[in-house]
Design goal:
Elements: H1 12-40, H2 45-73, H3 75-101, H4 110-123, H5 128-139, H6 145-171, H7 177-196, H8 202-210, H9 222-249, H10 256-281, H11 286-305, H12 310-337, H13 344-354, H14 357-372, H15 374-394, H16 396-399
Helix pairs in contact: 1-3, 1-5, 1-6, 1-7, 1-9, 2-3, 2-4, 2-5, 2-13, 2-14, 3-4, 3-5, 3-7, 5-6, 5-13, 6-7, 6-10, 6-12, 9-10, 9-12, 9-14, 9-15, 10-12, 11-12, 11-15, 14-15
């Protein structure tokens, strides 16, 4: 009887959100901590970026397959596999750093072990996102799609906000404690999903009836993937360069790790607030969200490049978050709405496969530009945003997609 007082514990969506929240905790803290620690131990900027880029290649290669697998084997099973993979990877990623720091492990093994730890996330952790968003598409009406996708995305983003905060507090007790705690959260989410999820979904049944196929080349798919890929490169280069940029430009600031962590917090909070305002409180149509969001992101990169104070840089990150909060749920929702029910897993998988492209290209494209001059990287990102904006305005599928989430629960 006592368990019946908490009906949300039996709601699959609750556990999906907690799972993405757990992933956000570990991912954000890893981005904050791993690059500076790795550089202090002797790895170069490009070597550190390579750790994340190899994982991103694996993510890009497997995400679409996980999406198809969720159509065939069920959202629950694939989401659980992804969360277990994430939890194992976050432990495998951080353990070599502390072993080398304590002179238990030789430095020569650091880079390959870090790559291996992150690779687990790319190969297996990539299963969670397409399964989660495909399930949300299964159980929501078309009119609610953008709002529900935004709320699911917000769970991950809230995790990225709390990651540096909770992790920073736990870090005072033990350097490895935050990562083991975040991994434990992932395991708990996997158990919750396993227990609460239905064994089959309507999407699986419809797939057997229609058995339709989509390709990333389809006209209802590739425009969304293209702008997602451009956004991914900008976002990944930002995330991987924030620590370096703040250290190199605002080196006179006290407590630089705290300043860097606050940058991620500002970016994530503004994204969550933007998603709530523009997809829930005062909803805007998807086509306008895409255009306004891309424009704001482009402006934010110009402001970041021209920042002469940490306050101006924080303002730039706030504007970037506002734009990202508009763009990401609108793009994911628009792609979903353009597909039939039996193709939701495949579509989510395709989108998941292009999101890591930025991490693949960052060490090849972005970091060499950063080494020429930190500001040049953000001017480059701004130019990509304005190219994307012109494409959105010029392509009829993106320009005329007016589906909104203007409904009430």
């Amino acid at each position: 009887m006592r368990l019946l007082a908490y009906p949300k514990l039996y709601n699959p969506t609750t556990w999906l959100k907690f799972g993405l929240f757990s992933v956000g905790l570990g991912q954000s803290f890893a981005f904050v901590l791993v690059p500076p620690l790795a550089r202090d131990l002797g790895l170069s900027v490009i070597e550190t970026s390579t750790i994340f880029s190899i994982s991103a290649v694996a993510w890009a290669l497997t995400s679409a397959s996980w999406g198809r697998a969720s159509d065939k084997f069920g959202r629950r099973n694939i989401a659980v596999i992804g969360l277990i993979g994430y939890s194992v990877s976050i432990i495998a990623l951080i353990t070599p750093l502390f072993l080398v720091e304590q002179n238990i492990l030789d430095l020569v093994y650091l880079l390959p072990l870090l790559i291996l730890g992150r690779l687990i996330n790319g190969l297996i952790g990539s299963a969670t996102r397409p399964a989660a968003f495909a399930y949300m598409a299964d159980v929501t009406d078309r009119s609610k799609r953008t709002k529900k996708f935004a709320r699911l995305e917000s769970s991950f983003l809230i995790g990225t906000i709390m990651g540096p905060m909770i992790g920073g507090f736990l870090f005072l007790y033990s350097k490895s404690l935050p990562f083991y705690c975040f991994a434990f959260c992932g395991f708990i989410a996997a158990i919750g999903i396993l227990v609460s999820f239905p064994k089959s979904t309507n999407a699986k049944e419809s797939a057997t009836k229609f058995n339709s196929k989509i390709s990333y080349k389809d006209k209802s798919v590739w425009p969304f993937l293209l702008i997602a890929a451009l956004s991914s490169l900008c976002q990944a280069s930002l995330l991987q360069s924030i620590g370096f940029f703040v250290t190199d430009i605002f080196y006179d600031q006290k407590d630089l790790p705290l300043v860097i962590s606050l940058t991620f917090v500002v970016l994530s909070i503004s994204t969550v607030v933007s998603q709530y305002i523009f997809t829930d409180l005062k909803p805007i149509t998807n086509n306008k969200l895409l255009m306004y969001g891309t424009f704001l992101i482009g402006i934010s990169y110009i402001m970041a490049a021209l920042s002469t104070s940490i306050a101006m840089f924080y303002l730039a990150m706030t504007i970037n978050g506002l734009g990202g909060g508009m763009f990401r749920p609108a793009n994911a929702s628009s792609l979903s709405l353009a597909q039939t029910p039996d193709n939701q897993g495949k579509a989510a998988g395709y989108l998941g496969s292009v999101i890591p492209i930025g991490h693949v290209l960052t060490p090849i494209v972005a970091m060499p530009i950063y080494q020429l001059g930190p500001q040049y990287l953000y001017f480059f990102s701004a130019s990509l945003c304005f190219i994307s904006l012109l494409f959105i305005i010029g392509h009829p599928l993106l320009r005329d997609h007016e589906q909104t989430s203007a409904i009430t629960d």
